[in-house]
Amino acid sequence: MMQPVFLPELVDPFNHYPLSLGRGYWFNPVNDEKYYINNGIPVFLPEEQMSGNNLKYSRFYDRISRFYRVSSVFYNWLRGSSEKKIKMKYLEQLQVKPGDKVLEVGVGSADNLLYLPRNASYTGLDISFGMLTMAKRHLRNWNIPAGLFQGEAEHLPFAEHSFDVVFHVGGISLFNDSQRAIHEMIRVTKPGGQVMIVDDNEVSQVKAYHKNPFSPASVVRTDEEQSAPVKLLPNGMRNIEVRYFFDSMLYCLTFRKPGQVSKSEIKPFADKMH
């Protein structure tokens, strides 16, 4: 039997007023703005309100959502590797402790959650409703309880200090506003909590280490966009580290939000795997 899904405190993503639950929607009691629930997934940014890259990639991933996971697993198999081996390279950098509340921004089809400890509470947000539909199916099959939400990274519908760990994998430079997205991830992280951002380091030299053949790998991005976005962090972030994997083709940026955290509580990820 699945444990109950953790529900973070929800706020209006555009003004951060606390939301109340109506019949089939969440609403802002100050301005009566409504955010409808579609097939169990609250929608905080319907397509008619999207623009720029967010609209472009929402439609792109909606189209390929049904084939995304199977193509990824098969592609890695053809290259002589496995999805788990590849994902664990960066997921091992997360310091998820029992009982932690964890948010993945850009959860996609929830593939990363399959390889994280089961003794934490998970929340996923994505801009593609098609990918969230697949994520919901996968999580049910894997018996992993997690709350799913549609929205954009630049305007997260969660209250300040909601999560112990927040992470994003593969696409930070494709957002409409990468810096705002990073600041939003920090806003919803608890003081002392960990943030991780993973992405390609050099698009011009992309290899077959982790790419899904349906991913928008042909997008041309500048060297500045492809380097770890340390300069986009606000002042005061702690324990900033950048690691590179797969011949430096992938960067993994980790840091902590200012605040108190006990060193004794931080243990190697491998020690906590189920």
For the record, the CATH architecture of the domain at 50-204 and 225-257 stands as 3-Layer(aba) Sandwich
Class from helix and strand fractions: alpha/beta
Distance between the termini: 17 Å
Question: Element order, helices and strands?
Answer: EEEEHHEEHEEHEHEE
- At the fourth level of CATH, the homologous superfamily of the domain at 50-204 and 225-257 is Vaccinia Virus protein VP39
Which regions have little confidence, pLDDT < 50, spanning 5+ residues?
A: 203-210, 217-225, 262-274
Helix content: 10-25%
Quaternary status: single chain
Broad CATH class of the domain at 50-204 and 225-257: Alpha Beta
Strand content: 15-25%
Principal-axis shape equals globular
Number of helices: 5
Number of strands: 11
Briefly note the CATH topology name of the domain at 50-204 and 225-257.
Rossmann fold
Give Rg in angstroms.
18 Å
Major sheet, described briefly?
A: 7 strands, mixed
Spatial sequence of strands, sheet with the most strands: 7-6-5-8-9-11-10
Overall pLDDT metric: 83
